[in-house]
Amino acid sequence: MGLLSSSVSINRYHVDGKFTDSILEIVREGLIKYSFKEIDEESSDKISGWTSFNNHFNPDFSGSSFIIDDVFVFSFRIDKKTLSPKIIKKFYHIEMAKQLEKSEKDYLTANEKKQIKEHVLNVLYLRIPATPNVFDVVWNFEKSTLWFFSNNKAANEELEIFFQKSFKFRLIKIFPFFEANLLLDLQETERDKLSGLSPSIFTE
């Protein structure tokens, strides 16, 4: 689900940090350094990285390609290889039978079984392509606000970790209380009243 979809899910974040005149270079360097790398020909089962908003499968952050007016626009891609437990079990038992026949033993040690399973997983992950998941990001650096176009919990958690690693800024999810307490110019008495509020329960 992306920025230009007919229906979208959005999580809003406050970008915590002091921005300097070099913010453009900081973001460009972070995008390039942590841009997405394909894993179809590797045994890894998952990888994350930044990619271009206009071309999810060929990241390009040269020039001002990721800037629109006063916002940064790019995408966060998470590729994952998924194996059925039944497939793993099948090839695990096939490989175990081969090893028993080769060693002429009646049983395999726990360490040997572990090595066989790791070998089977590596071989299988090399064979299957990864499924791409792409989520758009809109970052208004002047307002320190970021929109992430997904409500998926795992994707949001990964974004928060990856964003801080890439740009050294922390993402804070914006809830109504946070927005009122930190982003509005409240007086001390108003903050005291806000902290004393409790949720209302609406029933039919």
How does the SSE layout of this entry go?
Blueprint: E1 11-16, H1 23-33, E2 46-51, E3 67-68, E4 71-80, H2 85-103, H3 110-127, E5 131-140, E6 145-148, H4 153-167, E7 170-173, H5 176-183, H6 188-195
Summarize the structure.
The protein has 204 residues and is α+β, with helices and mostly antiparallel strands. The protein is built from 6 helices and 7 strands; from the N terminus they run βαβββααββαβαα. Helices cover 39% and strands 21% of the residues.
What does this structure look like?
The chain has 2 domains: 11-80 and 132-176, no CATH class; 85-127. Helices cover 39% and strands 21% of the residues. It has helices spanning 23-33, 85-103, 110-127, 153-167, 176-183, 188-195; strands spanning 11-16, 46-51, 67-68, 71-80, 131-140, 145-148, 170-173. α2 (85-103) packs across α3. It is elongated and about 80 Å long. The protein starts with 10 loop residues before the first strand and ends in a 9-residue tail after the last helix. The mean pLDDT is 86.
